[in-house]
Design a protein that fits this description.
Blueprint (H helix, E strand, L loop, with lengths): L1 H17 L3 H11 L2 H6 L16 E5 L3 H8 L8 E5 L30 H12 L5 E6 L8 E4 L8 E6 L2 E4 L11 E5 L3 E3 L1 H6 L6 E5 L7 E5 L5 E5 L5 E7 L5 E16 L5 E8 L5 E2 L2 E9 L9 E6 L1
Parallel strand pairs: 1-2, 2-3, 3-5, 4-6, 5-7, 6-8, 7-9, 9-11, 10-12, 11-13, 12-13, 13-14
Antiparallel strand pairs: 14-16, 15-16, 16-17
């Protein structure tokens, strides 16, 4: 008898939650910050079914790639955030007495391989949702060769962050990014047609580039609206840097160079952090060779900027 009363009380509590209006239930789902967890609430009650498709913040973390593709087709457009972080798959060798650790689906590994066709299809599906913010993280162990990706038109996007290894990023004709204010591109080995991309971003204020292999070793940035530029190139050689940004206020550069040609036209810049390592023997002064140049502007009023030159 006591068990029946307890079950009835539990059902009554569940009914009271399910009786809440849709707006409140959507707030509950949004706090989960995970599309998979939100979708699973449909197993609790029929009342919750279909609500996940109406969320304005969609976050996929730890969800297998093939399930992400299927879910994107069921979502309503005009979302505020679309975050896709495809899980890695790590394995330890059990034959050597190590624990097997797997992040991602336990089976269906063939579905995880991502080529050019699949990557473009996934980005087009994301673009159909018209996100205001797009985050797309695709780990290197799932990529099948170099990816030639056409960045789709994202007219409502104010923030785009792409982290895709072995990427060749192109901007097709007709692609426009009129609302884009912040762009972050982080790749292992990549070519990006930055000139073509920046021409379609009239409101871009912040540009962050990480790990890029620039076209033919040249970095060219030309933007009338750009206010902050951060470049962190961990590998590969840079031969030429050409920056034209009349509104630029913050510049952060970290790169490896040989005989580099540098031109920076930024009359409004206030804060500079410049770190350049030179390949051995690329720049010499008699018996000396240049190794590294570091320039830091003052962080606060009264402090002097610093310039460090390392040679051997």
């Amino acid at each position: 008898m006591e068990f029946r009363r307890r079950s009835a009380r539990l059902r009554a509590g569940a009914d009271r939650i399910s009786a809440l209006p849709d707006d409140l239930l959507l707030l509950v789902l949004a706090r989960l910050r995970c599309a998979r967890a939100a979708a699973r609430t449909g197993l609790i009650s029929r009342r919750w079914r279909g609500l996940a498709a109406r969320l304005r913040e969609i976050v996929f973390r730890g969800v297998p790639l093939h399930r992400i593709e299927a879910a994107l087709g069921r979502l309503s457009p005009a979302v505020s955030l679309l975050e896709i972080r495809v899980p890695k798959e790590r394995r330890a060798d059990t034959a050597r007495g190590k624990l097997l650790l797997r992040v991602g689906p336990a089976r269906g590994n063939s579905l995880l391989r991502v080529g050019t066709t699949r990557a473009n299809s996934l980005l087009r599906a994301a673009a159909r949702l018209e996100p205001e913010e797009l985050v797309f993280d695709l780990p290197s162990d799932l990529i099948d060769g170099s990816l030639v990706v056409d960045l789709p038109c994202l007219r409502r996007a104010t923030f785009i962050a792409l982290r895709i290894f072995l990427l060749i990023l192109r901007v097709p004709d007709g692609a426009e990014f009129p609302a884009l204010e912040s762009l972050s591109l982080s790749c292992g080995i990549a070519h990006a047609h930055l000139d073509a991309l920046l021409r379609h971003c009239p409101r871009l204020r912040t540009l962050r580039l990480g790990g890029f292999l620039f076209d033919q070793g040249d970095l060219r940035v030309n933007s009338a609206s750009l206010q902050e530029l951060a470049v962190d190139r961990e590998s590969g050689l840079t031969h030429r840097v050409d920056i034209v940004a009349p509104a630029l206020k913050q510049l952060s550069m970290s790169l490896i160079a040989t005989e580099v040609s540098i031109s920076v036209l930024a009359p409004m810049v206030e804060k500079v952090s410049w770190h350049c390592c030179y390949r051995a023997g690329s720049i010499t002064f008699g018996l000396w060779e240049l190794e590294q140049v570091t320039l830091e502007t003052s962080e606060s009023q009264g402090q002097l900027p610093s310039l460090q030159i390392h040679a051997s």
